[in-house]
Specification:
Elements lengths: L6 E5 L2 H12 L2 E5 L3 E5 L7 E6 L7 H6 L5 E5 L3 H10 L3 E9 L3 E7 L5 E7 L4 H6 L7
Length: 140
């Protein structure tokens, strides 16, 4: 039985990466050491994020060189446009400004200081074409 699960960002600058997530998205700091930070989302129980120093012995050589390759994080917020304004004011690396997507998500893409792509999104109405394409069945 799974008791807990969370993603870890492997970072070359632990304090800078921690500050990025805390300042931009409001993560709460649960634990800090010289090689690991554990964050939690105060408004979403069970949502957690770890940040591990890339130079620490527990990080394999392969993982430390990956720099976010093949991984993206998704964080759903109340207002992606307000978060975008905060990201711009903090000088974050914005890859894509907020854009409405056909399936009902307004999304922006950022790159955190560790190189991880972070999808920050809010709900928006899906397109009529997308809704029409869905099979009609009841949802329980």
């Amino acid at each position: 039985m799974i008791r807990r699960g969370f993603a870890n960002v492997i970072a070359t600058d632990l304090p800078k990466t921690k500050a990025w997530y805390v300042d931009l998205l409001g993560w709460q700091t649960e634990f800090v050491s010289d090689w690991f930070v554990h964050l939690r989302a105060e408004s979403a129980p069970g949502v957690e994020l770890g940040i591990i120093d890339a130079s620490h012995e527990i990080v394999s050589a392969f993982a430390s060189k990956a720099q976010g390759a093949g991984v993206s994080l998704t964080v759903v917020v109340d207002d992606v446009d307000a978060t975008y304004e905060t990201a711009v004011s903090l000088g974050c690396d914005v890859l894509e400004a907020p854009t409405d997507l056909f399936y009902g998500q307004r999304r922006m893409l950022l790159r955190d200081p560790a190189g991880t792509v972070v999808d920050v999104s809010s709900e928006c109405p899906p397109s009529e074409e997308f809704l029409a394409s869905l099979p009609h069945r009841s949802v329980h």
